[in-house]
Automatic annotation (TrEMBL):
It comes from Crotalaria pallida. Belongs to the BCAP29/BCAP31 family. GO terms for cellular component: endoplasmic reticulum membrane. This is Endoplasmic reticulum transmembrane protein. It comes from the Eukaryota. Residues 130-213 form a coiled coil. It is a multi-pass membrane protein. May play a role in anterograde transport of membrane proteins from the endoplasmic reticulum to the Golgi. One of its GO terms (biological process) is intracellular protein transport.
């Protein structure tokens, strides 16, 4: 039995070493453990583990019994008891090592699967985040294109308004020049009107004086 336990410990230690390092063998071991944990596998493992635990407890009980016998007899162990004590101690140690390595293999397998699931989840989250970022980037690019088109339209509208403003300014300048010319022309007309009015007044005065002179001359002739 001891040789069998050594073989089991060697196999379990090899499995632990394989699980600790990322090699092609680890995939095979993980696949084997996955199949072992399906169907009736867990029940069989629990049965074997329970049997090993019972044998371990039996060895420990035998050791305690031999120790109590020594205390009761108040004498040293006989060679037979010493051999039995060493045999039970070795069996208990090997059985404990078997259970410990089996538990370690189970935990390593569980953590490796959990790590794979988390990696897949992280990859899915990254892909989703990338998709969201791509959509946001496309949306931002579309908004940027729309804003650029709106900016171009505003610039063209601004140029049109600027040209209209320049044309209106020119028209206003022409109108102001026309107003100034008309004002000067009207001032010239007013001056001409005043001059003509003054000449008219002078002519009237001359006519009146002629009329008076004629009336005076006619009155003298009549006398």
């Amino acid at each position: 039995m001891i040789q069998l336990l050594f073989m089991v410990i060697a196999v379990e230690a090899s499995m632990v070493g394989v699980l600790l390092f990322k090699t092609p063998l680890r995939k095979l071991v993980i696949m084997g453990l996955d199949r072992l944990k399906r169907g009736r596998g867990p029940l069989m493992v629990k049965s074997v583990g329970g049997t090993v635990l019972v044998v371990l407890l039996s060895s420990l009980y035998s050791m305690v019994k031999i120790q109590n016998r020594e205390i009761e007899d108040a004498a040293s162990l006989s060679p037979t008891d010493q051999v039995l004590m060493a045999n039970h101690l070795l069996e208990a140690t090997l059985l404990g090592a078997v259970l410990f390595l089996a538990l370690m293999i189970d935990r390593l397998h569980h953590y490796i699967r959990e790590l794979r699931v988390r990696r897949k989840t992280m990859e899915a989250v990254k892909k989703q985040a990338r998709g969201t970022e791509d959509e946001e980037l496309k949306t931002m690019e579309e908004e940027t294109a729309n804003l650029r088109a709106e900016l171009k339209r505003l610039e063209s509208e601004l140029k049109r308004l600027k040209s209209e403003l320049q044309s209106k300014t020119k028209e206003v300048d022409v109108s102001e020049a026309s107003v100034v010319a008309l004002r000067k022309q009207s001032e010239g007309f007013l001056l001409e009107y005043d001059r003509l009015l003054e000449e008219n007044q002078n002519l009237r005065n001359q006519l009146q004086s002629l009329d008076r002179s004629l009336s005076l001359s006619s009155s003298k002739k009549n006398i």
